[in-house]
Amino acid sequence: DDYYDDEEYYEEEDYELQQEYQPKRETTATVVPPQQSLPQQTTSLAEKERSLVEMGFTKAQAKTALLECKGDVERATDLLVRTAHAMASFDNMKPPPSIVINEPTVANEVISSVAPPTAPEMSGPKNRRPKSKSPTPPLRKPDVGVGPLPKIPSEVMTKIQSQKSRLSMVVLGHVDAGKSTLMGMVLLKLGLVQKRTVQKYQKQAAEVGKASFHLAWVMDEDESERERGVTMDVATKFFSTPSHDFTLLDAPGHAAFVPNMITGAASAQVGILVVAATRGEFEAGFMLSKLGCVGGQTREHVVLARGLGVSQLIVAVNKLDVVDWSQERFDEIKGMLEPFLVENGFQQKRIQFVPTSGLTGINVKDKPSGDVKLSEWYKGPTLLEAIDSFAPAQRNVDKPLRIIVTDVHMDGKYVTCRCRVVQGVVQTGARLVVLPIGDEAVVSRIGVEGQDFAMAGDTVDMALGNIDLARVMIGCILSHTHLVLRPPVRKKMRAKILVMEHLQVPIIRGAQVLLHMHSIDVPAVVSNLIACMKRDGSIQKERPRVLTGGNSAMVEITLQEKVCLESYSDCRALGRFVLRRGGDSIAVGIIEQVL
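Structure (tokenized):
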């Protein structure tokens, strides 16, 4: 696009008539210090960029500022200087050498000393003269506190320190492994579901020929899920143990609903992998098919969960009562799963194997009694004891605010969002920006009971005012309004990916994929294959032609539309993704750099 300044528009006027009514202007020479570089009057975007780079700004900063100011060099310089002041206090960006942060008057003198352009000589009977332009306003001193993060009040910090650890736990596993039934029993044992409710579900389930599904109905509340007997969306429940407050995410196990499982796994720090101990069921979910591809979802769920940030795992060997609590069967499943989990990045000390039965409730809360064969050989923790032994997750309350919107609906005059706070602290009354749209909103209420704040790790309902429902969508990011504290909104990135082991069609340059990240999926193109990487991070081969199963590689990915992207080191939730193609997961990755 071409960018035009006011000086580039001219009108057909009589030059002599202008001279008669316009007073003559005295021109004075302007002395500029030799170390200061001035943006010259330019006619092309490249020259304007170059003039800003000569002042000490980077090329990316210059280009962004010119785009923001529609090519106006003076306004772009003003924006960059004010941003440099704010970033100096934020201590994340070194200000350009041509700007003295402690003496903003120097920059004022430099900018205001740009002399107005003279009228060009034009041939023909009528000369052209540029319109007059008002002088450049002096630079404003940055507001105190604009650059750094908003200060957290001491009473809020006291409440944060007094709270229990908060964890999000996703339930994984192959379809029909008994995930929903086991979680329904957990909630029943904790007293979060009334017994008469379970009896009502048992009667209703028997009427439709699914008598053993009554506990699963505690989690599967949708009528279509109950009719089909399959979990299709992520069910969310809340419960507490002596050490943690949990957000329970019951993910679907069917291959058709893997995108929903990705959404649940991306929201969790810990997980429970439920496998069925019955002969044939475990093998169907874990073993490879005759064609060499993955037969079930157990393998895929493990790889995706680790790639999306699940670092601690409990393997619940369910339905062990069907095989008469066989220790040999338990050890057989553990022997096959444990090496696979370690190979895919789980630390052995963060993996626990627990035998249980979701339908009977044995070893869920209470240890098995003496008449149960399990008590003869198993002396480990119960399922709830293992859940309570999870290590607390780090909560980045001191980082810039990042909130992911996972659901939206209208509640009276407010837009109510189900949100997951992944970084920072938000308080009622705060003004936030909704990205990538850019509209601003005010936090009117947090939580059902009207909490004062929410912090990293919380999943809350947040009421937003001064914004329309159509402007807030699932997958939007809420952050502080200041430009410095916002995540980048881009469509290109450099990322490190791990290709799924049993990939059928290799990945080539220009491959069309679907990128899944937290609650969104965006069409994308693998625009460049930079290098194949070794396990230690060193380069194995530069510019490979194809990527096959098991390869680790550095690639460039271009999205079809702009979204909030951030490097993995800055924000883990916005730096992880999954690539899918044709209904299959082909790679997991992390963002190294936003381009």
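The first helix runs from residue 15 to 21. Confidence is low (pLDDT under 50) at residues 1-42, 89-147.
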